[in-house]
Write a structure and sequence with these properties.
about 170 residues; Butyryl-Coa Dehydrogenase, subunit A, domain 1; two-stranded antiparallel sheet; 7 helices; oxidoreductase activity, acting on the CH-CH group of donors; Acyl-CoA dehydrogenase/oxidase N-terminal domain-containing protein; AcylCoA_DH/ox_N_sf; flavin adenine dinucleotide binding; AcylCoA_DH/ox_N
């Protein structure tokens, strides 16, 4: 794939979720009752459209400008600001996260498909969503009620972000 096009085979993805995995059957469970086949396919179609139309145009500029440190704060390319906000506003950044804290609660497979589209469009932006979701899930699983109340909803709304901290001196961290 060149840096000037993004190709996603929506027909193949639709086949995988409807015919092969038959994800529409998940709505027989209480947890996914609102996610029938049509809803899942619409989510994938719109998530991919968001990745292509909103995220992908930021790829080249954000790669050129990168991140920088200003007055002790990390700054990212301005071209990422609106797609970041829009992803949270529309729910794409927290698509599979717990509805209890503001996520959509979609099946993980649907979240992975949309995340893969966003990552393909601009991995730098996609990492914000993936790392934040992972950090929030860590708090949701192991954190105290006070930590859950203080952080998770704000993370799923894009007010706070999460990170991955590595401690592997031999690996450059």
């Amino acid at each position: 794939m060149s840096s000037t096009d993004l190709t996603l085979d929506q027909r193949d993805i639709s086949f995988a979720i409807s015919e092969w995995l038959q994800l529409g059957k998940l709505n027989n469970s209480e947890k996914y009752a609102e996610f029938d086949q049509d809803t899942l396919e619409m989510m994938v179609k719109e998530g991919i459209r968001f990745a292509i139309e909103v995220v992908f145009p930021t790829r080249a500029e954000s790669d050129r400008k990168g991140c920088r440190m200003e007055e002790g704060r990390v700054k990212v390319s301005e071209c990422l600001h609106k797609p970041f906000q829009k992803a949270y506003e529309l729910g794409w950044a927290s698509i599979s996260d717990s509805p209890e804290y503001g996520g959509m609660g979609a099946p993980a497979t649907i979240g992975l498909i949309v995340s893969e589209a966003i990552n393909g469009a601009n991995l730098g932006l996609g990492m914000f969503f993936g790392l934040t979701s992972g950090a929030a899930k860590l708090i949701e699983t192991y954190g105290s009620d006070m930590l859950k109340e203080k952080y998770i909803a704000k993370m799923f709304q894009g007010q706070y972000t999460g990170t991955m901290c590595l401690s592997e001196p031999h690996a450059g961290s």
